[in-house]
Amino acid sequence: MKKIICILGIVLGGCTTTQNLNPEHIHIDSLPDDCIKNIRINGVEYVENGNMKITVSGEVYNDTDLYYSTAWFNDSGIKINTLLSKYVKQTVKKGLPFYWTIVAPSSKAVDYKVYVSNTKIEQ
Residue 18 has what pLDDT? Predict the structure, then answer.
């Protein structure tokens, strides 16, 4: 059903391609049906303990559930393994922007990649 809605939206002009404004930091997986638009990293800050905090925002053309996960990397580019990298389910509504605030597991994290999908991916 979602495919039909999205295809109809494409035909009518209401559902364009996913626009990822930070492709180096946001990896979008299997989202052709959900039509995310304007997904971006809004900011990178550091909290009191020195951990990186990022804010992600975007919109969807149709009500849907999204799953997101964050991989954190140290200054050598090695992935930091943490239980906090599990996928989180977020219900998002058409016409309303969504915002996710994500904090690194340690101050050793200097880079990141956010993964977004419409299905939960087992890790």
Answer: 56
